[in-house]
Amino acid sequence: MEHASSSFGLAYISANLPTQALYGCADDGSIEFYMQKRIMRYMNVNEAEYSMVFTSSGGSAYKLLAESYPFRTNNRLLTLYDYESEAVNWMVETARDKGAKIMTASFKWPSLRVAASDLKYKLQEKKKKKKEQQAKGLFVFPVQSRFTGAKYSYQWMSQAQANEWHVLLDASALGPKDMDSLGLSLFQPEFIVTSFYKV
Description:
Layout: H1 17-23, H2 31-42, H3 58-68, E1 76-79, H4 86-97, E2 101-104, E3 107-108, E4 113-114, H5 116-124, E5 138-142, H6 155-162, E6 166-170, E7 191-193
Parallel strand pairs: 1-2, 1-5, 5-6, 6-7
Antiparallel strand pairs: 3-4
């Protein structure tokens, strides 16, 4: 009797992010389609509100988003990291090349807590009005610090969106038990980057 092994492979698909976000990338019946459905159910993500794009790493997800995001018109990038992130550095370089103003959140020493008044000021900073109402830019918000383990308040996402920022939620620091408790029914960032390395 021969043992049949079950295996599958994912093919490399070259596409741009705006097209995939608008029209999707996985055909009904493909492995990617079923994986996408299962992952979205697992994370309690509404398929009508989000599209999913698979990348080879978190760094490539940041790079793809940075290359696709309209930093020329929504010309600010604000990050909230208390540690060095190569993926975020790629995004910063791409945004800078497109003429974006780069800002980072400040942290209080020695606790490494977010300097709330400084972040609030940066989120509320006025942008020159243009004919078309546009977002100020992209606010990159990690769920928690990988350095201290401190979880950041989701209220920062709400405040950013209330001040006309798009939000990228970095959920890659979460473990498997935390993935289904992201609170996406209450807070809806425009973009989410996560990794299933620990799942």
